[in-house]
Amino acid sequence: MLCKRHYTKTLTYAILGIFLLCFAFSAHEVFAMDIKNVSEFLKKPTKNISLSKNDVIMFHGVKIHYTDEYDIATIGKNQLFKTERGDPKYNLPFYGGITAVAIDFPIKGDDSIAIVSAIDRYFGFNNHMLTKHKDSFILCSLIDTNGYEIFSFDASIGNNAFILGDTQLIEYTFTGPDGQVIYKTTHPGMFAGLNLNRIAVFENETWRIDNIGEYPDHYKRQLTAIDERLEQSKEYNDDDLRASNAILYAYCCIMTGENDANCIEKLHLFLTPQLSEYSKHIFQVIKKHANTFNPLTIERFSLSGNKLP
User: Fold this and answer.
1) 0.90 exceeded by the pTM?
2) I need a surface site. Which of 28, 98, 199, 209 has the fewest CB within 10 A?
3) Phi-psi map region of 305: left, alpha, beta (phi>0 left; psi -120 to 50 alpha)
4) Where are the beta strands (DSSP E) in 135-263?
């Protein structure tokens, strides 16, 4: 059984961790996408993108503004999204380092804007990536996530993709073959939650979630980081932290495309002794989730704001 798990994280982490500024390269034509904070468009507006002094963004004809309760995107009378902002005293600043514009992304000639809105005191987030692509807008949404690094860009995965970080910090409840609960992640620490990092790929005129084995190098880097945390959990004698990271290790191992036997062997090695006897069963639960996990909602709109099929 899967359910969401909230972690309180500092505003500093929320702001600093969201966007990675880097370059991406096309296999056919070398060009750099340019990642800008939207505040840059206050003094240097372009034909298609601007920011007014009263905090209204114009993005290829889309008006994006906020009230105390909502972030709103409209074209004329047509609404693309209306996102809850929650209690203002817990909210992130609308342009405080967390609204980014990506020029020439996901392909040359396209532009994208990423907007992140805090909705509660636990820093739950609503997240939107709006892409102007040819004669339409594509809206990619992640609703009520709980992490601080939501959309990030990394040259190693190419110029037509971005990383979905902290898409869901969740609790896993594992039941054995007899239906009895054998393990539930309950550790309150920041790193014990299961952060199912994933990649969004632009293909066939839309966004999709990456497939198992499609980006092995990215997930191998995740495995290295988890290895370090597993060693720390042994030093701290923290069984729950160890189990959570063992499960996350298995997830990333699956995503590299590694064969099941090797991933199960690692999971069995890393799990606590009381859980290791269930390693094959736990692995099958993780693999099922890796195959079906898709946090994205995709919508397409015409340039006048009418919703398209």
Assistant:
1) no
2) 28
3) left
4) 136-145, 151-152, 161-164, 169-175, 181-184, 194-195, 198-203, 206-209
